[in-house]
Amino acid sequence: MKKLVLSISMSLLFIAVGFAQKSNRTSAFMYKQKGQLVEAKEAIDKAVQNEKTKNDPKTWLYYGEIYYAIATSPLPQFQKLDSTAAIKAFHALQKAKKLDEQNKKHKIAKEADEYIKKLSNVFYAKGAEVFKKEDYHKAIEYFEYAYKVSQELGKFDTTAAYNIGITGVLGKEPKVAAEYLKKCVDVNFHDPKIFIYYNRALQQLGDTAGAEAAIKEGRKRFPQNLSLLLEQAQLYLERGDANKLIASLKKAIEKKPDNPSNANFNFLIGKSYDDMGKQDSAEIYYKKAIQVNPKFFEAYYNIGAIYVNKAAKIQKEANDLPLSENKKFEALEKEANANLKKAIPWLEKALALNPNDGPTIKGLKEAYARLKMNDKLKELMSKQKK
């Protein structure tokens, strides 16, 4: 009789233990519903370690929901429970779906996906937060999780891939940057900056040929975009291929003489000649740029700068003369002032287009003062005080 009683007692004990094991999961859910996240976390952490409940998809669903609540809580006492709560929530929800599929119950996948979808905003927010602090490595991690969320839901998140790419370039992690920017290129993400950063990532990797190919593809897809054109110009200039750039731009102008982009093309040809020290040719193309676009501020300013720089060079030559060469000094000073006078109309036109441009204002002030154009100087000074 005693043996029978013992057997019954042992059976009740096993039932009680099994119930206790599942009660951790139930308690976790109830605590979460009441907003008691400390207790909910403690209970669900036990449930996912327990042999009886750790392979149950519902356990991992609850784990994901509780850790999502921790990750999104505005209260510091809950936030400090786990700084990686969002990441743990994502992995838990993935596991819940996997176990649900293995068990062929298909009861919780929809609910898990709802939470996974909401995690996207969490990862974006956390990524943006650390990005502002210039913690680019951590930002990449969060943006990658935003990307993984879309993959889990059977989608492609170009914005997440784009963010990873830009952050990788800024954070000097070109390998990951190039990988994700290539994904954006492959799906025809409609933003020319993709090609700018893709080119930079490839340059950081030392792939000069790939960088040039990326810019060419960008120019092909966005032929009107000035930023891409400038990026290509920079690439050619860094490689010492100014002549190659000039030749390609001249060919583009010949091909489409009525193209509005010819203003930019002519400007870049002028800038290339300018950088090569061929100022006469530079001025010709700056003027061509103005013919196409009469409001091209940079072209007006650069022509003015050509004459200002000429004047400065001649004046330095004059100042370096010995005192005995007074006549030559006067001749050179006169020539310098003549160049400075030529600069003024171009700088004035530039200032009319951009009234607050500091370098233009400074250049005009110095020219007016040097040439004793006191009325002009006074007028300019009075405008700056308003």
Task: Describe this structure in a few short sentences.
This protein is an all-alpha fold.
What is the tally of beta strands? 0
The proportion of strand residues reads: under 5%
Name the average pLDDT.
89
Radius of gyration of CA atoms, rounded to a whole number: 34 Å
What count of helical segments does DSSP give? 19
| Helical/strand content category | mainly alpha
- Unreliable spans: 1-20
The global form is: elongated
The number of distinct structural domains comes to 4
CATH topology of the largest domain, what is it called? Serine Threonine Protein Phosphatase 5, Tetratricopeptide repeat
Which CATH architecture of the largest domain? Alpha Horseshoe
Instruction: Kindly provide the name of the CATH class of the largest domain.
Output: Mainly Alpha
What is the helix fraction of residues, given as a range?
A: over 70%
Characterise this structure.
By secondary structure, this protein is mostly helical. The chain has four domains: 103 residues, Serine Threonine Protein Phosphatase 5, Tetratricopeptide repeat, CATH 1.25.40; 84 residues, Serine Threonine Protein Phosphatase 5, Tetratricopeptide repeat; 54 residues, Serine Threonine Protein Phosphatase 5, Tetratricopeptide repeat (Alpha Horseshoe), CATH 1.25.40.10; 92 residues. Helix content is 79%, strand content 0%. The chain contains 19 helices and no strands. The longest helix is centred in the N-terminal third of the chain and has 32 residues. The protein is elongated, with a radius of gyration of 34 Å. The protein starts with a helix and ends with a helix. The N terminus is likely disordered.
